[in-house]
Structure to design on (784 residues):
């Protein structure tokens, strides 16, 4: 009995202690300051590619939505795995968000590995991670071709994409269209069944227009609700509801009656206008007289609208040799040697001079890493090839940079303000920081490794070069015609000065297909040979010999 | 305290005189040249940093050894023979020379170390590696300096002494390739990629060599006094 009573007492005592401990814990929790991460949450949500569909070896859109409860001034960081997973590329974009702020942005990312996750994180200025998300791409979601559409009715393009790979159709929303033209690179064709421009902001409108001007393709199959982009895309006028088309190969179902507008050219089948097409810069805009679902996969209209697939060449990698920046090293080490001898000479005569010797050693120990960094940067210059393409007032810059590391370590390369940068070659880590004025790439390389950088940027037109076609001549106004050449048809002619600010090409000869200017243009547009068939191409050599400025004239 | 007087006198002569400054200037010029040589790019497995490191070891060791062995006669410096004829005890002389050799070797190593640090920073290797190399340079220089100090007392003929000193240094440093890759040999231990134990073994053996030389010196000085 005594034992039982004692056991009961001890159990009650234990329960009392546990209750006290719980109460104490609750009081402690009530008085503890809330953890910042819990009190001020932030979230990141990312979608890779076109609704998850991606294309390997080109720019794909990465749509990131950031929401934060507190004010954030930091970085949006995208970590991209590289082939074999040994390398890492970090893209850093500055982010400024007010309390309760929400931002959606679409950035172009170059996908070279579709098996490992892409990590998107929001970092504070001090590097603290506020939120992150890993996007795991599926290898089966990497396809050969993507056709996007705006509207309700999905188009039915041929199922086989370039290289006999798979082609997918993806429904897009206006709000999530990329705001950088480079991000459209993975889109073969945009089918616009319905476009509400009020849901687009200026950057998106500009990006779409730039993409088309530089080779993008759009098919319009339905109503466009006003706005500058709609009128720019209107290459045909709708005259009426039209009639049922019978026996047409390209279209099945009723046809709208179209009339070409502006420079639009009709596509006629059995005396019916089934489409109207018009070149917009290097791209094409088609208006179809039928809905997208009425154009069967084997319709010739698809072969007209879809781009021809041609493998893209890149500039040959220069056989760059590291430089020996002797001057800064000689000056830095010489200054140290002089200071040392001076300090030692004083120390030999005055005992307090030993403080000077110590100061020289400490100061040089602190300064040598900075001197080494300066020498390292100068030893590995980036060999740049740039092609500046101007089409109807829209200019884009395509750049390739090659750097070879003479020593192991970090190298910093400064690029112009770019909208997309990709890194490949030999490195372990690359960090690309997109700043308002320029882009900084910091790469960690082993000795002897070569890194290749590729970037695309929207560029302001250099002057206002106007290409005019005359009787057997092509004239260029407003350009600084250094060493210029005009290519047109299968001919080429040098630019010769004919007056102040006026350059004329009239001495035509057979075109050299391997002319350096044409090769450079082919790096940006693989279909260069067919472009010069029907429009003049003015190529101006840059003064530094590192690239070309190409002005594309209007199509005949 | 008497040993400290010897150290003060030696350092004043080696640094405070015109000749001393000229020697420091020449050493820094050599170090500067080696620093420039070391910025060459790495090709295959050959790193100019290794060549520069051996060069720095040779330069520092040569200056320290030449100073200790009276190969460079600084005005006002008392060498071992002068001190043997002075009232200083043999122990004071030995400790004084050991300390002055150490101070001068440390000073010359400190003068060359920032260049090593620069070459390491250039290659992105940790700064601690340059300190490891500096320890080897210091120990080897001090060891050679000890031998040189002993030779001053042991060999009467200046020509024979010079031949012995420089011949020995050349054989020891340059003959490394002939006897095979001994990791603890100074020419290997000073390399940037040398293992820690190799550096420790090299430093310890150099210190032992220096200590043995100074012990031999302490036995030599009383004999010199007897003869004198």
């Amino acid at each position: 009995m005594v034992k039982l009573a004692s056991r009961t007492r001890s159990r009650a005592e234990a329960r009392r202690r546990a209750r006290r401990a719980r109460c104490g814990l609750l009081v402690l929790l009530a008085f503890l300051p809330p953890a910042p991460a819990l009190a001020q949450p932030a979230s990141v949500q990312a979608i890779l590619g076109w609704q998850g569909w991606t294309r390997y070896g080109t720019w794909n859109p990465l749509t990131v939505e950031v929401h934060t409860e507190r004010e954030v001034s930091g970085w949006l960081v995208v970590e991209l795995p590289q082939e074999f997973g040994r390398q890492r590329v970090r893209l850093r974009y500055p982010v400024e968000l007010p309390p309760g702020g929400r931002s959606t942005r679409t950035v172009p990312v170059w996908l070279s590995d579709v098996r490992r996750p892409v990590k998107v994180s929001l970092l504070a200025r001090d590097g603290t991670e506020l939120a992150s998300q890993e996007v795991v791409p599926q290898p089966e979601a990497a396809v050969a071709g993507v056709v996007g559409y705006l509207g309700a009715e999905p188009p039915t393009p041929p199922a086989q994409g370039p290289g006999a790979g798979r082609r997918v159709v993806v429904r897009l929303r206006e709000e999530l269209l990329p705001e950088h033209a480079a991000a459209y690179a993975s889109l073969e064709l945009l089918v616009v069944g319905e476009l509400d421009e009020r849901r687009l902001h200026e950057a998106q409108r500009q990006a779409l227009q730039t993409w088309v001007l530089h080779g993008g393709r759009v098919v319009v199959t339905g109503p466009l609700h006003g706005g500058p982009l709609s009128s720019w895309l209107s290459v045909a006028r709708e005259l009426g509801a039209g009639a049922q088309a019978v026996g047409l190969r390209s279209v099945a179902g009723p046809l709208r009656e179209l009339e070409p507008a502006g420079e639009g050219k009709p596509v006629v089948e059995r005396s019916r206008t089934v489409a109207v097409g018009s070149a917009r810069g290097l791209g094409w805009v088609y208006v179809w007289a039928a809905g997208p679902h009425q154009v069967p996969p084997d319709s010739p209209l698809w072969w007209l609208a879809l781009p021809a697939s041609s493998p893209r060449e890149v500039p040959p990698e220069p056989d760059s040799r590291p430089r020996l920046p002797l001057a800064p090293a000689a000056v830095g080490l010489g200054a140290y040697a002089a200071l040392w001898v001076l300090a030692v000479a004083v120390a030999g005569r005055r005992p307090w001079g030993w403080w000077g010797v110590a100061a020289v050693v400490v100061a040089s120990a602190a300064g040598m890493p900075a001197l080494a960094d300066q020498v390292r940067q100068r030893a590995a210059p980036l060999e740049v090839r740039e092609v500046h393409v101007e089409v109807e007032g829209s200019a884009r810059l395509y750049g390739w940079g090659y750097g070879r590391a003479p020593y192991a370590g970090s190298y910093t390369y400064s690029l112009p303000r770019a909208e997309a940068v990709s890194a490949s070659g030999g490195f372990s880590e690359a960090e690309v920081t997109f700043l308002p004025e320029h882009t900084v790439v910091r790469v960690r390389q082993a000795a002897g490794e070569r890194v290749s950088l590729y970037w695309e940027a929207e560029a302001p037109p250099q002057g206002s070069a106007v290409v005019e076609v005359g009787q057997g001549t092509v004239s260029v106004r407003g350009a600084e015609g250094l060493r210029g050449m005009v290519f047109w048809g299968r001919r080429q002619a040098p630019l010769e000065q004919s007056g102040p600010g006026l350059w004329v090409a009239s001495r035509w000869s057979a075109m050299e297909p391997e002319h350096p200017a044409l090769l450079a243009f082919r790096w940006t547009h693989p279909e260069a040979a067919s472009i010069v068939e029907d429009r003049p191409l003015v190529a101006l050599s840059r003064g530094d010999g590192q690239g070309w400025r190409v002005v594309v004239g209007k199509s005949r | 305290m008497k040993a400290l007087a010897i150290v003060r006198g030696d350092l004043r002569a080696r640094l405070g005189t015109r000749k001393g400054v000229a020697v420091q200037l020449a050493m820094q010029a050599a170090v500067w040249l080696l620093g420039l040589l070391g910025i060459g790019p790495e090709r295959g497995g050959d790193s100019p940093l290794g060549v520069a490191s051996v060069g720095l070891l040779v330069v520092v060791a040569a200056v320290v050894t030449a100073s200790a062995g009276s190969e460079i006669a600084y005005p006002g410096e008392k060498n071992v023979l002068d001190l043997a004829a002075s009232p200083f005890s043999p122990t004071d002389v030995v400790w004084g020379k050991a300390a002055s050799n150490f101070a001068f070797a440390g000073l010359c190593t400190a003068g060359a170390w920032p260049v090593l640090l620069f070459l390491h920073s250039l290659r992105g290797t940790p700064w601690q590696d340059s300190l490891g190399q500096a320890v080897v340079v210091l120990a080897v220089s001090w060891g050679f300096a000890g031998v040189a100090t002993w030779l001053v007392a042991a060999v009467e003929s200046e020509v024979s002494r010079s031949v012995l000193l420089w011949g020995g240094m050349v054989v020891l440093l340059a003959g490394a390739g002939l006897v095979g890759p001994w990791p603890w040999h100074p020419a290997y231990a000073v390399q940037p990629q040398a293992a820690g134990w190799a550096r420790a073994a090299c430093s310890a053996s150099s210190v032992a060599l220096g200590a043995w030389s100074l012990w031999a010196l302490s036995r030599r000085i009383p004999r010199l006094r007897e003869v004198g």
